[in-house]
């Protein structure tokens, strides 16, 4: 894995936004995989700024979000769809018909998962998958456990994951949906290029295990070790438990 270190999250976000703008210039119809969470917020704002300065044109790009809560409609204030509208979609010129987010309000969640997989395939696969990482090592909502799912699937959220999403639901973990839909490990690993971003001391332990530990379903992000084109963009704090630097 290529590891690039940054002084702080602001410098990291600026560098990655520039990288994405360059990727858009090289392939205007790029297919992007997008994460939610606190980590990418600054990146999305940087992309909005680049777009405002005519340096990032999303008009022909396609996006697929990694995951969504199940049992709430897209327009729910706590949904990842709403998060994305606020932080990215309203700030850039993506064509609405090329924005893809799993529908957490779907009447048939399994069918929704199949539809999503087919849509990714129909778009030609994901060129650049951006990822965050949970402190427990999850990517998307692929939670640590005895087994992992390959394709887009329905998942029961861990208590820790529900706690870390409480801010989207008025601060109350009990209000966070118990289930979600998520791309699977294989869906993610099929992306042609993957960039994982992590900032802050709370991520140091899982970054250390992900890079230097065994590949195990107990640390879903460890599977990124088998991908040929993965870059980790870390601030110094998140890299704190790595034995080797960049
Ligand atoms: P965070 O979430 O960016 O809010 O830390 C990352 C994740 O859980 O994937």
Q: How would you describe what is shown here?
A:
The protein is an alpha/beta fold and 246 residues long. The protein has a single domain (2-186, 219-226), classed as Rossmann fold, CATH 3.40.50.1360. It has 7 helices and 10 strands. The protein has helices at 9-26, 41-52, 80-89, 109-122, 159-164, 185-189, 204-212; strands spanning 2-6, 31-34, 62-65, 67-69, 99-100, 128-131, 153-156, 179-182, 193-198, 230-235. The strands form 2 sheets. It has a 7-stranded parallel beta sheet. Strands 4-8-7 form a 3-stranded antiparallel beta sheet, covered by helices on one side. Helix 7 (204-212) links the parallel strand 9 and strand 10 (230-235). The radius of gyration is 17 Å and the shape is globular. The model has no long low-confidence stretch (mean pLDDT 97). 2-phosphoglycolic acid binds next to loops.
Which kinds of small molecule does this entry bind, naming each only once?
2-phosphoglycolic acid
Overall CATH class: Alpha Beta
Number of self-contained structural domains:
1
**The CATH architecture:** 3-Layer(aba) Sandwich
CATH structural fold name: Rossmann fold
What is the tally of beta strands? Answer: 10
What profile does the largest beta sheet have? Answer: 7 strands, parallel
Shape: globular
Q: How large is the count of helical segments?
A: 7
Q: Quote the average pLDDT.
A: 97
As a percent range, the share of strand residues is: 15-25%
Structural class: alpha/beta
SSE string, helices as H and strands as E? EHEHEEHEHEEHEHEHE
Q: Kindly report how far apart the N and C termini lie.
A: 10 Å
Radius of gyration: 17 Å
Low-pLDDT runs: none
Helical coverage, percent range: 25-40%
Q: Strands of the biggest beta sheet: in what spatial order?
A: 1-10-9-6-2-3-5
């Amino acid at each position: 894995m290529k590891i690039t270190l940054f002084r702080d999250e602001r410098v990291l976000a600026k560098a990655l936004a520039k990288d994405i703008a360059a990727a858009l210039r090289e392939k205007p119809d790029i297919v992007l995989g997008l994460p939610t969470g606190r980590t990418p917020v600054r990146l999305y704002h940087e992309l909005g700024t680049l777009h405002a300065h005519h340096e990032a044109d999303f008009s022909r790009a396609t996006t697929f979000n990694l995951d969504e809560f199940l049992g709430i409609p897209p327009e729910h204030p706590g949904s990842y769809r709403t998060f994305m509208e606020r932080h990215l979609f309203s700030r850039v010129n993506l064509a609405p018909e090329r924005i893809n987010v799993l529908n957490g309000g779907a009447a048939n969640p399994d069918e929704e998962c199949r539809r999503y997989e087919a849509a990714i395939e129909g778009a030609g696969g994901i060129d650049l998958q951006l990822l965050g990482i949970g402190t427990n090592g999850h990517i998307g909502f692929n939670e640590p456990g005895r087994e992992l799912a390959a394709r887009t699937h329905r998942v029961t959220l861990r208590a820790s994951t529900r706690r870390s999403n409480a801010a989207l639901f008025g601060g109350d973990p009990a209000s966070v949906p118990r289930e979600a839909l998520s791309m699977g490990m294989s869906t993610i690993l099929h992306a042609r290029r993957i960039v994982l971003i992590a900032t802050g001391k709370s991520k140091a332990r899982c970054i250390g295990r992900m890079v230097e530990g065994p590949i195990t379903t107990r640390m879903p992000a460890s599977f990124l070790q088998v991908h040929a084109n993965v870059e980790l963009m870390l601030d110094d704090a998140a890299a704190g438990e790595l034995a080797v630097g960049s």
